[in-house]
User: Fold these one by one.
Assistant:
Number 1:
Amino acid sequence: MSLRGLSLLLAGLLAAPALAADRYLVESSLWLDGQLAGTPTLIVEADEPASLERGGEVGFRLTLMVEPVLDELVPQDILWLHVTIEQLGDEGWEELADSMLGAREGEPTTLSVVEAGQEATPESASLFLEARISRLRPADQPN
């Protein structure tokens, strides 16, 4: 291997931990059958799923993963948000949605499940999720 090739490999290895350390704050509101089920907030490491489970009358499990878009033609504030939502029923966890959303950092993005021809609002949807992603800067990140 040439000295240049070794330098590029070393630079890539040194950069990899910095990329993997990107963390995001995902603030969301989840409505199920027209009722606010919760306002979960998660800190998510890039490309690593994070889950939150809530019991109670309207039990749910929310799993999120933030994936940076690695395309130089796409603005750096555009992210992929992988979302899985499950509801606790008599038979255990039932998957309600499993989707991937394009999201702009700092702006709300939504996911909804409605009947055909129905307007998607928190009150009318069987499932309505609104999420906002913010990149945590090193000074903002908890240890």
Number 2:
Amino acid sequence: MKLKFLKPYATNLLITFVVLLLPLIREQAPSETGGYSVAHYSPLFLLSTYLQVGEYYAFFLMLGFSLVVYVGVSVVLALISKFFTKKKK
């Protein structure tokens, strides 16, 4: 099994950073007034915050999530590349 698609190309890294900058993580907490307050966080923001605070378990969870996103982006780009190169022939 070849894992060449995991090599860090510029497109893989750029798309991964764009996805990780999106506010994907949602937190819903009860408010003092009886309602709920909802906050959205980007994974890169949480990654840096957990490292600064010293929450290493949460930091490694977010690092694992980032790696899963990178692998997912790499697989999708490899499939798209394979599809278009096969179409040209």
